[in-house]
């Protein structure tokens, strides 16, 4: 039987797929011509978020935290696909988390190259975009290696997980797959000792994410300064300047969403686990907020980019107009029918 959390994940995933497909359609058909090849990067984000949502929908990964343990777990009775895919869903979930910031970093780099009118980027735009699109894939392969090498299951984690969660819920460990860290397992002497393999893996992952954040902050600030300079130097706000401003602020809010919903909750939970003070509520909190990320992330584009906003509003107005017309037609038919019935009854009435 599906848990409440799994149902919630799948509803969120369906909304995420709808929102991102709608955004892709708007990008392809309603983008301003001056958006240019940046459309490919925008579609790239939406495609990534669709796959993220599909992992949530089919694998229903959850996060378990308690004391010094932090695990990403999939259960055989919650997945839509055969048990063979349990491990793959765990790994994909971890990899997507890792590369989420890298994807936004390449966007800020490209945005800065465009607004600064970089000659190399202008001359070799296709090659630059290809290189930027390739980087998250390579980064994802590196992250997968980290997951398999440093935060894969080990006996002490198995024992703790069974004792503190699986046995209490009547679940056999053969029916779950997980990846994660157990910072302070009990040693043979009964003392809690730092698990160095997991700790080194988390340290490398943290450095990788910090580098992604640093790139976002540096190129985001540069892009902001250059965009502001363009607006101030232009005698009038040109369509190009307005468009660059809209794209920049939409990207800022798009980046803020995974930071707030994914990285801040996960960082708090990781820190609590490291200091051996975590509890199960932190894991539940992370699981709930993380699956909202692909659902909410397309929304800034809908509201902030003028072409997309107008297209949605026009479609909504057309939809309402058709509903009103249909209701009007039904009322008209009903009125005509009633008039005909009244006329018939009058003509059929006996005369004195």
From TrEMBL:
Keyword Magnesium: no
InterPro entries per UniProt: 7TM_GPCR_serpentine_rcpt_Str
GO molecular function, one term: G protein-coupled olfactory receptor activity
Membrane topology category: Multi-pass membrane protein
Keyword Endoplasmic reticulum: no
Subcellular location(s) per record: Cell projection, Cilium membrane
GO CC aspect terms: ciliary membrane
Domain of life: Eukaryota
Family: Belongs to the nematode receptor-like protein str family.
Summary of the function given for this chain in its UniProt record: An odorant receptor which affects chemotaxis to the volatile odorant diacetyl. Specifies AWA neuronal cell fate via the odr-7 pathway.
Protein name: Serpentine receptor class r-10
Organism: Caenorhabditis brenneri
Organism ancestry: Eukaryota, Metazoa, Ecdysozoa, Nematoda, Chromadorea
């Amino acid at each position: 039987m599906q848990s409440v959390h799994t149902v919630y994940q799948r509803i969120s995933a369906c909304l995420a797929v709808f929102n991102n497909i709608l955004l892709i359609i708007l990008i392809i058909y309603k983008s301003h011509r001056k958006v240019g090849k940046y459309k490919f990067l925008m579609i790239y984000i939406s495609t990534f978020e669709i796959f993220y949502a599909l992992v949530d929908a089919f694998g229903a990964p959850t996060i378990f935290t308690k004391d010094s343990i932090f695990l990403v777990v999939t259960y055989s009775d919650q997945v839509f696909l055969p048990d063979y895919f349990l491990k793959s869903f765990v790994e994909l979930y971890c990899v997507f988390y890792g590369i989420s910031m890298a994807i936004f970093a390449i966007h800020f780099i490209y945005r800065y190259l465009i607004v600064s009118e970089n000659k190399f980027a202008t001359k070799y735009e296709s090659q630059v975009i290809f290189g930027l699109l390739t980087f998250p894939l390579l980064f994802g392969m590196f992250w997968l290696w980290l997951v398999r090498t440093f935060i894969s299951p080990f006996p002490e984690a198995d024992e703790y997980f069974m004792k503190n969660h699986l046995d209490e819920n009547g679940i056999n460990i053969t029916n779950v797959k997980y990846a994660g860290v157990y910072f302070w397992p009990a040693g043979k002497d009964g003392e809690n000792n730092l698990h160095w393999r997991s700790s080194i893996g988390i340290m490398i992952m943290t450095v990788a994410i910090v580098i992604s954040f640093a790139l976002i902050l540096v190129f985001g600030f540069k892009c902001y300064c250059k965009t502001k300079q363009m607006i101030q130097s232009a005698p009038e706000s040109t369509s190009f300047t307005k468009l660059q401003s809209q794209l920049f602020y939409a990207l800022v809010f798009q980046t803020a969403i995974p930071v707030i919903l994914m990285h801040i909750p996960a960082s708090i939970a990781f820190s609590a686990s490291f200091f051996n003070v975590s509890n199960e509520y932190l894991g539940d909190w992370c699981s709930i907020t993380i699956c909202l990320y692909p659902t909410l992330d397309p929304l800034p584009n809908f509201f902030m980019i003028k072409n997309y906003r107008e297209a949605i509003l026009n479609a909504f107005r057309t939809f309402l107009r058709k509903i009103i017309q249909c209701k009007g037609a039904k009322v008209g038919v009903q009125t005509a029918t009633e008039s005909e019935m009244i006329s018939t009854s009058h003509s059929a009435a006996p005369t004195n």
